[in-house]
Amino acid sequence: MISWIRRSLSRKLFVSYLLVIATGMVVLALTVQVSGRPAFDRHLAAMAQMMGDVMMGRPMMGHMITAQSLEADLYINFQSALRESLALATLVGVIIAVLASLFMSQQIVAPLRHLLYATRRIAAGHYSERVPAPPTPAGDELTELAHSFNRMAESLEKAESLRRDLVANVAHELRTPLTSVKGYLEGLMDEVIPATPETYERLHREVNRLERLIDDLLELNRVEAGVYELHRQPVSVQELVRSAVERLDLQFREKGVRLTQQVPADLPRVMVDVGRIGQVLMNLLGNALQYTPAGGTVTISALQEKSYVLIRIVDTGVGIAPEDLPHIFERFYRADRSRSRSSGGSGIGLTIAKLLAEAHGGFIRAESAGLGKGSTFTLGLPIVS
Ligand code: ADP
User: How far apart are alpha carbons 20 and 15 in whole angstroms?
Assistant: First the structure.
């Protein structure tokens, strides 16, 4: 019963009004009970005193004692006793009712005060602020509000920390190539570095890196905000893979990494945006090429599993350490910072690829037996239903 009342604010308010009224009435009745008798006795004693005086022959100024006058006196005394006791009972009842309603409203208003205070703190940028929140099953709407408030504060805190990290990461990523460009330019000005075609080529590479980073950031922003359109259509997986392989074939040959494909022709078609999934495949194949030394192999295969087609890119490259594996889809995460930075990687490619795959109702998984043992990336795409 008590938990049934506690679970609803309206029930709580209703019961608290009833309690205040009941408390007032009980106190009223008790006070009448306690004070009624003494008051009546007092008035009766006054009357007895008066009658005694008359019997002892003491004259009462113009007062003749008859049966009627005795009854009237008794009634007047009874009324006075009742009034006196009721006045006292009302006073005590009102005081107790006021105290009871103050206590009840305090119980209801206290959580609201906490919320008000916490809202102000959060508005002032203190995102770690939380309100006391008892467990929900026993709580009413105010408890639920406190829980929702805490969840909202938690998301705000997380968003704020992501924003701060992003600004710090972007600043850091921009500074590295800029420092390099600045160093070359100063060297050229001071004639410490010779103005040879190689120097200009290096400068050009750094500027390209900056440009790529900015393009990646803009793309990440678009994909995260979801401000792009997906033109999904039924597409053959063989066609998707063939097109990505064709575009990277020359780079594979130049580096001396063998690229093989095993995609059966009878796979069901997938429902995707050709451009976007092409971008994801290029990213996965590009990474496989980047992290596989010359003489290695990259194999791209596909198979159906339930309502998905799984495209697997297996390389015999540097592999991924188990402690890095859970993080490689995070923004700016690079398993080997120095190596991937020198090769121009921003650590954003996989984040974008994963978001794009998920926007299609698909997924990307990464596996690796460890450093030096190659990696496997699996892209799952929903088949046309
Ligand atoms: P990057 O531009 O640095 O390659 P990605 O987001 O594409 O950024 O990849 C994040 C990190 O995941 C890389 O820095 C690398 O450490 C790791 N990684 C991705 N693909 C592979 C792979 N095929 N083999 C080994 N490590 C990989």
Answer: 9
DSSP three-state, residue 366: strand
Query: β-strands 297-305, 258-262: how paired?
Result: parallel
Q: Within this chain, do residues 240 and 377 fall inside the same structural domain, yes or no? A: yes
**pTM for the predicted model, two decimal places:** 0.68
Which ligand 1 atom is at minimum distance from the Cα of 313?
23
Let me know if residue 76 belongs to a domain. yes
Residue 22: pLDDT band by 50, 70, 90 thresholds?
confident
Q: Residue 94: pLDDT band by 50, 70, 90 thresholds?
A: confident
In this structure, which residue's CA is closest to atom 4 in ligand 1? 345
- Could you tell me the two tokens for 107? 């119980």
pLDDT above 60: residue 60: no
Q: Which atom of ligand 1 is nearest to the CA of 374?
A: 24
- The residue among 316, 239, 337 whose CA lies nearest residue 281 is 239
Out of 252, 328, 354, give the residue to mutate to test ligand 1, the one with the largest number of ligand atoms within 8 Å of its CB.
328
Distance CA(276)–CA(384), nearest Å, equals 17
For the chain, what is the domain count?
A: 3
Per the structure, the complete domain to which residue 355 belongs is given by: 232-382
The dihedrals phi and psi of 296, each to the nearest 5 degrees, come to -85, 180
Q: Is residue 169 part of a domain?
A: yes
| Last residue of one domain, picked from the residues 77, 102, 126 | 126
Where among 190, 225, 260 does a domain terminate? Answer: 225
Q: For residues 310 and 303, is the Cβ–Cβ distance under 8 A? A: yes
Kindly give the distance from the C-alpha atom of residue 202 to the centroid of ligand 1, in angstroms, as a whole number. Answer: 23
Q: Tell me the CA–centroid distance for residue 209 and ligand 1, in Å.
A: 16
Q: Is 102 exposed, middle or buried (0-12, 13-18, 19+ CB in 10 A)?
A: exposed
Any atom of ligand 1 within 6 Å of the Cβ of 375: yes
Ligand 1 near 374 CB (within 6 A): no
Rounded mean pLDDT of the chain?
87
Question: 56 and 110 share a domain?
Answer: yes
- Report whether residue 362 contacts ligand 1, using a CB cutoff of 6 Å: no
